[in-house]
Write a structure and sequence with these properties.
Residues 1-61, 448-475 are annotated as: Disordered. Residues 85-158 form the DEP domain. One of its GO terms (biological process) is intracellular signal transduction. It comes from Cyanidium caldarium. There is one protein chain. By secondary structure, the chain is an alpha+beta fold. Among the domains are: 30-159, Arc Repressor Mutant, subunit A (Orthogonal Bundle), CATH 1.10.10.10; 180-334 and 439-474, no CATH class. It is built from 17 helices and 11 strands. The strands form 4 sheets. The protein has a 4-stranded antiparallel sheet. Strands 8-9-10 form a 3-stranded mixed sheet. α6 runs antiparallel to α8 (216-224), α6 packs parallel to α9 (238-260) and α6 packs parallel to α16 (441-456). The protein is elongated, with a radius of gyration of 25 Å. Residues 4-52, 55-68 and 459-475 have low confidence and may be disordered.
Length: 475
C-alpha cells in the first residue's frame, strides 16, 4: 500500500540501524599481540558483508559456497548448548581501545568451552569454529579474521543487527527449500497467528509487539524466514509470482513493525520501506522493491521520477509482466487506512483479488448523491495511473465492487454526468497509526477460540494449548 510517499522529498539514505561502526580487530593477549586491521580494511569488510545481495555479489557467492555444517549429527542441540545463557559461551559487551562490540565472545574462550563441554581437542575446536564461520552462523566482529584460538571477538549471526531481517540464520545449503508459495503462505500465516496471540486487553484490537518480539515463537519465525534465502522462483507463473510476493510483502512489513516499530514520520517511512528487506533467492528485496518494482511492473514510487529497478538489476527477472491494480487491496502496510492483510493461497487468484477489492472499496468508498461527490481512499490519488486516468472512468472502474445501494446511487450519478467535472472526487486523508488486521479464515478461527477462552477466564491470561501447534503447523 502507499506507504507514505506524500510530499516526499529526496533525502539522505537513512539506514534503520544507523551509521556503521568501523572497528579494528579484537585485542590479542600480550603474548600474542596482533596489529589491528586498518580502518579501510574493516570498512570494506563490513560493506562486503552487509551490502544488498545482487544475485552475483559477495553475499550470494558466500551462500553458494556455504559448507554443509547443519548436516553434522546433533548440530541443533550443540548450537542450543552454545547459546545457553547459563552454561553456554559467555556473551558480553567488550571493548577494544575506543570501540565497543555488543554481545560477542572471545575465540580462545570458545575453544576452551568446546574442549570442556564437547570433548574436542583445541585444534578440533578451531576447525569447528571455522565451520561455523563458513556456514554464516558466527563471524568476526569486523569480518576480517578467521576463527582462531586467540583473543579475537566473534558474534553470532543471530545477534547481528541488520536491515535484512531474515539473516539471523543462514539457510542450510544441504536442505532443499520447499515450494516458494508454500514457504510464503506459511510465514505470513505463522506471523498472523502470533499477532492474534499477543493482542492486548481490554479491547484486543492492538498487538503487544514488544512481548511478541521477545517471545520464543517469534525467534523461531525469524529462523523459519531464512528459508526464503534459497527458494527457487524460476518456475513460477505470473499468478504464482503475484501470490508469492504479496504474501512476502505482508510478512516483511509485519516483521519490520515488530522489530523496528511503526514508522511515525516521513523520514522514518522513507527508510522503513526503502531499507528493511528480506533476502529472497539470493537477492535482497525491500518493501519498495516488492511493491513498486515487482507487483506494479517496475514503476516509480508516488511523486518519484525514476523507476524502481534500473536496467541490469537482477530483480528485473521477477517483475510482473501484467499490472493488476487490485494488488493494492491485498497488500498492507499495517496501518488503520490500509486494507486488512490477506493470506493468498493462489488456488484462484482472480477470485481472491475480486473479493479483496469488493470488501475494501465497499467499506471505504462514500457516495453522496445530494452533493454529487464521491469520497475515495487516498490510494486512488497516489496510484491513479495504476487504475485509469479520467475521473469518470475511475468511478466506472470502482462501480462493480460496491454494494447494491452504493452501486445504484453511483450509477445514477454517472448516468447524469456530462463531463469530467460533473461528479467531484475527494480523497480521504491517510492514517498512519499501526493496526494489524487480517482477513483469513485461519486467523478468524484463531481469534474466535481466543475470545472464547478470554471470556471464560476474564481475569486470567488466556491459555492457548493449541497456539504453538497452530503456529508451527502453519510454518
Amino acid at each position: 500500500m502507499p506507504r507514505g510517499r506524500v510530499d516526499e522529498q529526496v533525502v539522505p539514505d537513512l539506514v534503520a540501524g544507523g551509521e556503521t561502526a568501523v572497528e579494528p580487530a579484537a585485542a590479542a593477549t600480550a603474548a600474542t599481540a596482533v596489529t589491528p586491521p586498518t580502518r579501510s580494511r574493516a570498512s570494506s569488510a563490513w560493506t562486503a558483508r552487509n551490502a544488498p545481495a545482487d544475485g552475483d555479489g559477495n553475499a550470494s557467492s558466500r551462500l553458494r559456497s556455504q559448507r554443509e555444517l547443519f548436516a553434522l549429527p546433533d548440530f541443533e542441540q550443540t548450537y542450543a548448548r552454545m547459546r545457553d545463557p547459563q552454561t553456554g559461551l559467555q556473551l558480553a559487551d567488550r571493548r577494544w581501545r575506543l570501540l565497543q562490540y555488543s554481545h560477542c565472545f572471545v575465540g580462545s574462550e570458545a575453544v576452551t568451552w568446546m574442549h570442556d563441554k564437547l570433548g574436542m581437542t583445541r585444534d578440533e575446536a578451531v576447525r569447528f569454529g571455522q565451520q561455523l564461520m563458513d556456514a554464516g552462523v558466527i563471524h568476526h566482529v569486523t569480518y576480517s579474521e578467521p576463527f582462531a584460538d586467540a583473543h579475537f571477538f566473534y558474534v553470532f549471526q543471530e545477534d547481528e543487527d541488520t536491515n535484512v531481517l531474515n539473516l539471523k540464520m543462514i539457510w542450510d545449503s544441504s536442505r532443499r527449500p520447499r515450494d516458494p508459495l508454500q514457504v510464503a503462505t506459511d510465514l505470513i500465516t505463522r506471523l498472523a497467528l502470533l499477532c492474534e496471540e499477543h493482542r492486548e486487553p481490554p479491547s484486543y484490537s492492538e498487538v503487544d509487539y514488544e512481548a511478541l518480539k521477545q517471545s520464543e515463537e517469534f525467534r523461531r519465525y525469524v529462523f523459519a524466514a531464512s528459508e526464503l534465502q534459497r527458494v527457487d522462483l524460476s518456475g513460477l507463473s505470473h499468478e504464482d509470482k503475484l501470490c508469492f510476493f504479496c504474501n512476502v510483502y505482508n510478512a516483511l512489513c509485519l516483521h519490520a513493525h515488530i522489530v523496528h516499530g511503526a514508522p511515525t514520520t516521513m523520514l522514518r517511512r522513507w527508510s522503513f520501506f526503502k531499507s528493511l528487506s528480506y533476502r529472497i533467492a539470493g537477492v535482497d528485496f525491500s518493501l519498495d522493491d516488492i511493491e513498486h518494482g515487482v507487483l506494479r511492473g517496475n514503476q516509480t514510487r508516488p511523486y518519484g521520477l525514476i523507476r524502481q529497478f534500473r536496467p541490469g538489476n537482477p530483480r528485473m527477472q521477477y517483475v510482473l509482466s501484467r499490472r493488476d491494480p487490485r494488488v493494492h487491496f491485498v497488500i498492507s502496510a499495517g496501518t488503520q487506512s490500509d486494507p486488512p492483510m490477506r493470506i493468498l493461497d493462489g488456488e484462484n487468484i482472480e477470485e481472491e483479488l475480486h473479493f479483496a477489492a469488493e470488501a475494501f472499496l465497499d467499506h471505504t468508498c462514500k457516495v453522496h448523491p445530494e452533493s454529487n461527490e464521491v469520497v475515495l481512499p487516498r490510494i486512488f490519488s497516489w496510484y491513479r495511473d495504476d487504475f485509469v486516468r479520467g475521473d469518470l472512468e475511475l468511478l466506472r472502474w470502482i462501480l462493480p465492487y460496491l454494494g447494491v445501494d452504493k452501486r445504484r446511487a453511483l450509477q445514477q450519478m454517472l448516468d447524469k454526468a456530462t463531463d469530467e467535472g460533473s461528479v467531484s472526487i475527494r480523497y480521504e486523508s491517510f492514517t498512519w497509526n499501526a493496526e494489524a488486521r487480517f482477513h483469513a479464515t485461519v486467523v478468524r478461527q484463531k481469534r474466535r477460540r481466543l475470545e472464547r477462552e478470554r471470556s471464560a477466564t476474564p481475569h486470567s491470561p488466556p491459555a492457548d494449548p493449541e497456539g504453538s501447534a497452530a503456529a508451527n503447523s502453519a510454518a
